[in-house]
Design goal:
By secondary structure, the protein is an alpha/beta fold. The chain is built from 24 helices and 18 strands.
C-alpha cells in the first residue's frame, strides 16, 4: 500500500483592495501614494509665522494635517518622520515688533503728555490713516478703516470733554480708551517716524518667542501631536546662507546691493526646470509676488534691483531698524521662501515624500520653494506629493487678519471642546473650503452626542462582561448576531475604502453613523438577550478609530469618550469609570430598592427624595441615572459639564412648555373676556364708537353716512343690519343671565 500524502492545497485568490490615493496639488488629481523608502515617509509641513495669536485659520491646517498624519501612521502603518518649521524672522515680525515696542514707550509717556500734544499727534495719525483709507481699493478694508477713523475721533472727543470737566479719574480712563482704540494707527505712525532707530535685537526676539510659546500651547489644547523635528529660521541662518550660495553657484541667483534674488527667467529656460508648477496660471502675478516679498521689501529701490519683476528675494540686505546676520553679501536676513527649502533639505536631503501647507501658500510661496530647491540640487523634482488644506470662512465670510475678521483658537475653545472642533473638521473634506459657523459646530456637537449616547448604552448594557462570572459573557450566536456582524464587516470595509480615497473622513464617519444606527436597532429589538461581546467589539472599534483620528486623547483600551477629556498629562487619564462605577452602582441599587418600596407604600415624600437624588445631586457628580418602566435602571458616568448643560436644557424646555401653556390659557381667558364684553354691548351702541368709519347714525344706531359724509349704500346697510341682529341675540342672552342672577 502506497504512503498517503497530503492533497494539493489551493491558495485563496486575493480580493482586490483599494489603494491609498492622495490629492496631489502637483497634478491636481488623486494619485496613488507610493513612499520613496518603503514604509518610511518623510513629511515637511509649513509652520506659522509667529507674530500674533493663532486663529481658526491655523487650526484649519494643523488639525487637518494632524488627522492625515495620524491616519498614515496609526491606520495605514507608515513610519512618518514629521518636520515643521517656525518662521521667527520675517517682515511681519520685524514690523510688528518695532511698532509695538514704540507704541509701548509712547503709551507709557502719554500719561504725562498734555492734551494739546495728544491732539497734535492725533491729527498726524488721522491724516496718515485717511490717506491709507483713500488709497485702499478693497471695499471691505475701506469700511474697516473708516470705522477705525470714527472710533479714534469719538475716543478723542470723549478725552477732550473729560479734560474740560477736570475729572482726573475720567481723564485717565478716556486717555486709556483713546490709546487702545488708536493702537494700530499710532503704532504705524510711530514706526514711520522712529522705526529706523530701533537697534536692540532683543526687540525682534521677544515677540516671536512669546507667540511661538502660545502657538504650541494652542496646538496642545487641540490635541495636535508635536512634530518630530521643529526648525526655527533663527537657528538655521548658516544653513540658509550655504543653500543660497549653492543656487548662486548653479547660476540661478544673483547679488544686487547686498540682497540676493532668484533668477526666475534663467531657471525657467533650463530644460529640466519649470517655474510655477502648482499654479502656472499665476506666473507674472506681481501683486501676489510682492505680497510674498513682505511689506519691508517692496520699496522702489528694492523692486528696481531685480532683473525681472518675477524674481524674488533669497537674502535681504537689512536696513536701519531691522535685525541682521553676516553673510558673504553683507549684513542681512533670509527671504521668506528660502527658509523652508533650506530647513527641509537639511533634514531630508534633495527629495522627500510629502509637503503640506494651506491653499493660500500655493503661489508664490510653495512655487518659489520648489524652484529654488530644484535649482540648488539641479533636479527636476524636490517633493513628490504636495497637499494643501482648503480655506476657512467665518459664517460664509472670508477670514482676514487685516479685516479683524478672525477667531483665535482660545476664543473657539471657550465655545466648543477640542473634540467638537476636530469632529467639525472630520465631517468635512480636508482639501475643500470649511465654513466655521454655528451650523457647522451644531453638526459636530450632535454627532458627538450621538456617539456618546451609543457608548454609554453599550457600557451600561454590557457591564456584566466586566463584573459578572467569566462564563456569562458568552451567549448563543444566532442569525441576528450574524446579520449585525455582517454589517460590522461592511462598515469596516467602507471606512477602509473611504480613508484610501484621499483620507475621506467624512464618508468614514457616515459609515460609522450607519453602523451605530444598525447596532441601536439590534439593541432595541433584542433587549432580553444581547450578545455583549459583539456590542463591545463594535464600540471598541469605533473608539479606536476616534483615537486614530485624534478625536479621543489619552490611553487606549476603554470604550467611548473618557471623562475629563482624557488628557494624558493629568489625573483625568485614570480610568475613572473602573474606579468609581462600583460605588455609584451600589448607590443606584440601594436607591432603586428604596424607590420600589416607596411606590408600593405610596410614600410620595420618599419618592420625591429619590427624584431629587437623580435630578439634582448625581448630575453634579457626573452621574446620569435613568429609571426604566420595568423597575430597572441604567447608571452612566458622563462629563459633569455635559450633564449640567443637559439639565439646563431640560429645565429650559420645561419652562418653555409651562410658559406656552400659560400663554394659551391667557389667550383663552382673553378671548372669553372679549366675548363676554361683546355680549354686554347694546345693539344700538355697537357702531357709535366707530367714528373713523362713520360720521352719522340713525335712531336705531345704524350708520347712515361714512366718514367722508357719503350716504351708506343699500348693500352695505344690509350687512350692518345683519350684524346688529346678531348682536341683539347675544345681548338678549346676556340680559337673560343678569335677570336670572
Amino acid at each position: 500500500m502506497s504512503k498517503r500524502v497530503q492533497p494539493a492545497w489551493q491558495a485563496p485568490k486575493p480580493a482586490a483592495r483599494p489603494k491609498l490615493r492622495l490629492y496631489n496639488s502637483l497634478t491636481r488629481q488623486k494619485e496613488e501614494f507610493v513612499s520613496l523608502e518603503g514604509n518610511n515617509v518623510k513629511w515637511y509641513s509649513c509652520g506659522p509665522t509667529v507674530y500674533d495669536a493663532s486663529h481658526m485659520g491655523h487650526a484649519r491646517s494643523y488639525i487637518s494635517f494632524d488627522i492625515l498624519r495620524r491616519i498614515l501612521s496609526d491606520y495605514f502603518g507608515y513610519n512618518v518622520h514629521y518636520v515643521m518649521n517656525i518662521t521667527d524672522i520675517d517682515d511681519k515680525i520685524i514690523k510688528r515688533a518695532r511698532q509695538y515696542h514704540l507704541y509701548e514707550k509712547y503709551a507709557n509717556a502719554a500719561t504725562q503728555l498734555p492734551l494739546e500734544r495728544l491732539l497734535t499727534d492725533q491729527k498726524e495719525v488721522l491724516t496718515q490713516l485717511q490717506v491709507k483709507c483713500d488709497k485702499n481699493t478693497d471695499a471691505d478694508k475701506k469700511v474697516m478703516l473708516e470705522k477705525m477713523l470714527q472710533r479714534m475721533t469719538d475716543a478723542m472727543e470723549a478725552l477732550t470733554k473729560a479734560v474740560c470737566v477736570g475729572d482726573k479719574e475720567k481723564i485717565a480712563k478716556t486717555r486709556d480708551h483713546y490709546l487702545a482704540e488708536a493702537k494700530d494707527p499710532i503704532a504705524e505712525w510711530l514706526d514711520g517716524k522712529d522705526g529706523a532707530n530701533v537697534s536692540d535685537n532683543s526687540v525682534f526676539e521677544a515677540l516671536p518667542r512669546y507667540w511661538e510659546d502660545q502657538f504650541h500651547n494652542d496646538m496642545k489644547s487641540l490635541n495636535i501631536l508635536p512634530p518630530d523635528v521643529l526648525t526655527r529660521v533663527s537657528e538655521y541662518v548658516p544653513q540658509i546662507v550655504a543653500f543660497i550660495q549653492r543656487i548662486i553657484d548653479n547660476g540661478l541667483a544673483y547679488d544686487a546691493n547686498g540682497s540676493v534674488y532668484f533668477d526666475v527667467n534663467g531657471f525657467d529656460k533650463r530644460e529640466k526646470h519649470h517655474y510655477a508648477k502648482l499654479v502656472p496660471e499665476a506666473y507674472g502675478d506681481t501683486a501676489s509676488l510682492q505680497e510674498g516679498e513682505g511689506d519691508l521689501s517692496v520699496t522702489e529701490d528694492r523692486l528696481s534691483e531685480k532683473r525681472s519683476p518675477n524674481d524674488f528675494a533669497l537674502w535681504k540686505a537689512s536696513k536701519a531698524g531691522e535685525p541682521w546676520w553676516d553673510s558673504p553679501w553683507g549684513r542681512g536676513r533670509p527671504g521668506w521662501h528660502i527658509e523652508c527649502s533650506a530647513m527641509a533639505s537639511d533634514i531630508f536631503g534633495s527629495t522627500f515624500d510629502i509637503h503640506t501647507g494651506g491653499v493660500d501658500l500655493k503661489f508664490p510661496h510653495h512655487d518659489n520653494e520648489l524652484a529654488q530647491s530644484e535649482a540648488a540640487y539641479n533636479e527636476s523634482e524636490w517633493v513628490k506629493y504636495f497637499l494643501h488644506t482648503g480655506h476657512l470662512t467665518i459664517a460664509g465670510c472670508k477670514m482676514s487678519k487685516s479685516l479683524k475678521n478672525f477667531i483665535t483658537i482660545q476664543e473657539a475653545l471657550k465655545k466648543h471642546s477640542a473634540t467638537q472642533l476636530r469632529l467639525a473638521f472630520l465631517l468635512h473634506s480636508w482639501k475643500d473650503t470649511l465654513d466655521y459657523s454655528e451650523n457647522t459646530m451644531e453638526m459636530a456637537t450632535q454627532y458627538e452626542k450621538f456617539l456618546n449616547e451609543f457608548f454609554l448604552n453599550v457600557k451600561d448594557l454590557t457591564r456584566l462582561v466586566l463584573t459578572g462570572k467569566a462564563m456569562d459573557q458568552f451567549t448563543e450566536w444566532t442569525s441576528l448576531e450574524s446579520a449585525l456582524q455582517t454589517k460590522f464587516g461592511e462598515a469596516q470595509a467602507q471606512v477602509y475604502a473611504a480613508l484610501c480615497d484621499n483620507i475621506d473622513t467624512r464618508s468614514a464617519l457616515d459609515s460609522i453613523r450607519e453602523l451605530v444606527s444598525n447596532t441601536n436597532i439590534y439593541i432595541r429589538d433584542n433587549k432580553s438577550r444581547l450578545n455583549h461581546l459583539l456590542l463591545r467589539k463594535i464600540a471598541t472599534y469605533i473608539t479606536n478609530l476616534l483615537h486614530t483620528f485624534g478625536a479621543i486623547n489619552g490611553p487606549r483600551g476603554g470604550i467611548g469618550f473618557p471623562l475629563g477629556g482624557g488628557d494624558s498629562n493629568n489625573a483625568a487619564s485614570i480610568d475613572q469609570e473602573s474606579l468609581l462605577m462600583p460605588y455609584v452602582q451600589s448607590v443606584a441599587e440601594f436607591r432603586n430598592l428604596v424607590r420600589e418600596q416607596a411606590k408600593g407604600l405610596k410614600a410620595f415624600d420618599i419618592l420625591k427624595l429619590c427624584d431629587d437624588l437623580r435630578d439634582d445631586v448625581l448630575p453634579n457628580l457626573g452621574v446620569r441615572l435613568e429609571d426604566k418602566d420595568d423597575g430597572k435602571f441604567a447608571v452612566k458616568l458622563v462629563d459633569r459639564e455635559m450633564l449640567l448643560r443637559e439639565r439646563e436644557a431640560k429645565q429650559a424646555a420645561e419652562a418653555e412648555r409651562a410658559a406656552e401653556k400659560a400663554r394659551k390659557k391667557r389667550a383663552l381667558e382673553e378671548a372669553a373676556a372679549a366675548k363676554e364684553a361683546q355680549r354686554r354691548i347694546n345693539p344700538k351702541d355697537m357702531f357709535i364708537s366707530e367714528t373713523e368709519k362713520y360720521s352719522a347714525f340713525g335712531e336705531d344706531g345704524l350708520p347712515t353716512h361714512d366718514k367722508e359724509g357719503k350716504e351708506i349704500s343699500k348693500g352695505q346697510l344690509k350687512k350692518l343690519q345683519k350684524l346688529q341682529q346678531q348682536q341683539e341675540q347675544r345681548y338678549k342672552e346676556y340680559l337673560g343671565t343678569v335677570n336670572t342672577a
